[in-house]
Write a structure and sequence with these properties.
Distance between the termini: 53 Å
Radius of gyration: 24 Å
Largest sheet: none
Helix content: over 70%
Shape: elongated
Order of helices and strands: HHHHHHH
Length: 214
Amino acid sequence: TLMGYSALQSGLTVSPRGLGAMVSMMMVGILVRYIDGRLLMAFGFALLGASTWMLGNISLEIGMSSVILPNVLNGFAMGFIFVPLTTMTLSRLRKQDIGNGAGIYNLMRNIGGSVGIATAMTMLVRGSQIHQSTLAADAGSPLASGLARGLQARLFSQGVDMVTAHQKALGMIYRSVQQQSALMAYADNFRLIAILALSCIPLLLLFQRVKRHD
């Protein structure tokens, strides 16, 4: 939305994430039989952290390809995280308990996802407000005043009266401040998610090896 993408452009930009997840899930389904699930998850969290950090460097001037690559890597990382995670979660249960275990596991995933989304949205709103206040503090700077006068003169040359041109120039600057502050809040959240993903790697040592059922 901030970059002015249409619904089709947004879909083409984000959909490769699903392709990356599909490819990795097929790979991990085979690798999990031969490689310790903790190593697969560590690789997934590392890749998730790297791809999310890449998204933390976005700006309003980047091209579509700059968003597609991190999304592909992000989706690829998800397969390496959730397939081994599901296997390791249920591997030490008795066969008659796997159904109940899967239900509790999915319940906890849904609760965690809901809490995470709510937290992220709260941080986005508050972060945007903080960045907007910081940017608005420079509204009286010579650079901002010069930009306003330049926009006002441009609008006046297009036939807009001076008062309306001044109001529209201020509105254009305010809209730009809102866009930049929202983008900065998204970048902050992406970087935080990257740090959290990397922080999960040491916690994998708490997992026990998969128990093989004969």
